[in-house]
Design a protein that fits this description.
single chain; TIM Barrel
Length: 382
């Protein structure tokens, strides 16, 4: 199989420079524009499905590469940053929770959904992680071997306007934090049990964290990857807890993962869709994050500027419903508001906050790129 991506390698190099400047809390010619263009959008726009995406390892690897091609050729922005493309076995946001005991509702055309498995305090106190066999983690490890054999056997070649593209193969448990997994396992009762059964919740969080570290190390031994490097976490179930509760029940377990898998100078990436402004002290002081990828739309840009502007990089913030529905003049206004608030601080990546709705008009995304370009040109004009 051969895939030729009709995208300019020089444009990819320019995007890479913008990204590097952002990670250094600066700005190149303009802030990068980075979308949450996830499988739910890309599969739908390509006419594929989750049923196909999850059918077998070679099909999934092919679908990921075709998603990458469609994104490069159709979605304006800076997501393509070089002559590389990455694949890895993935099951959206359910691999960690299913592997720790949760059920899953599968759908042919929507992302899978977690079904809680802990329903009472007695269940909580008796919980033990299941064996690895039969979990999505085990399937991911098996699929990685099959994807590797497919790549090494010449199953696909990829080029960008004729230039060779390197296809990298990864393996990773998934980005959900221990607290996210705990909420998946317990459902909304998890929040009650922070108050009513705190010791049992700490026990659960400790068991989850131990198991995640154990299996991630197993995966790294399989791939030969070093133990430390960039680490991505999402605390997306934690925005509704107080700063005090976050520091007690969330940060210590997320911090264990960061400290285990990052070294000096490595990026500590956090994803937080919702209203997380009250958590900035813990994110910056306790977890010492490098930046937020998928900066939530409910956080006003001015709030983020005043709390962490110039201290961490921030990607996202534009409301996904606004990007889909418009009107265009409001998209421009909200983009300029974000740029005016955070652009001068450095470290801004303009994008959605987070995970584009599948039928978002591409011309609305182009409008954002054009607004960012015009803003930067005016800023740099003598």
């Amino acid at each position: 199989m051969h895939i030729d991506i009709l995208y300019d390698p020089q444009a990819a190099a320019a995007s890479a420079r913008r990204m590097e400047a952002m990670f250094s809390l600066g700005m190149a010619d303009r802030p990068p524009v980075i979308w949450g263009a996830c499988p739910r959008m890309l599969l739908a726009r390509r006419g594929s499905s989750f049923a196909r995406f999850f059918s077998d390892p070679v099909t999934q690897a092919t679908e990921i590469l075709l998603n990458h091609q469609w994104l490069a050729e159709h979605v304006p922005g800076d997501m393509v940053t070089g002559l590389t493309a990455g694949i890895q076995p993935q099951f959206e946001n359910v691999s960690n929770s299913q592997s720790l005991g949760a059920g899953v509702r599968w759908d042919d055309h929507q992302p899978p959904q977690v079904l809680p498995c802990i329903h009472t305090v007695a269940d909580l106190e008796a919980y033990e992680p299941p064996p690895l066999e039969g979990t999505l983690w085990q399937r991911m490890m098996d699929w990685h071997r099959e994807m590797k054999a497919w790549l090494e056997g010449g199953g696909v070649t990829v080029t960008m306007r004729g230039e060779p593209v390197s296809v990298g193969l990864g393996l990773h448990i998934g980005g959900e934090s221990p607290f996210c997994v705990a909420v998946d396992l317990c459902g909304a009762l998890a929040y009650e049990w922070l108050v009513e059964a705190p010791e049992a919740m700490h026990r659960l969080l400790g068991l989850i964290t131990d198991r995640m570290i154990e299996v991630e190390r197993m995966m790294r031994r399989q791939t030969g990857e070093p133990e430390r490097g960039t680490w991505f976490l999402t605390d997306d179930s934690a925005q509704i807890v107080s700063l005090r509760s976050y520091r007690e029940f969330v940060a210590p377990y997320s911090l264990r993962l960061y400290e285990t898998f990052t070294g000096p100078g490595d990026k500590r990436v956090m994803h937080l869709c919702g209203n997380h402004a009250h958590l900035y002290p813990a994110l910056v002081e306790d977890l010492r994050i490098s930046g937020i990828w998928g900066f939530g739309a409910p956080v006003a840009p001015e709030q983020a500027r005043d709390a962490v502007g110039g201290r961490i990089w921030l990607v996202g913030n534009l409301d996904c419903s606004l990007l889909r529905d418009g009107p265009p003049d409001r998209i421009v206004a909200e983009t300029r508001r974000l740029l005016d608030a955070l652009g001068p601080c450095g470290g801004l990546g303009v994008g959605d906050g987070y995970n584009l709705i599948p039928d978002t008009p591409l011309e609305h995304l182009r409008l954002v790129v054009d607004t960012v370009t015009q803003w930067a040109a005016a800023l740099n004009r003598p």
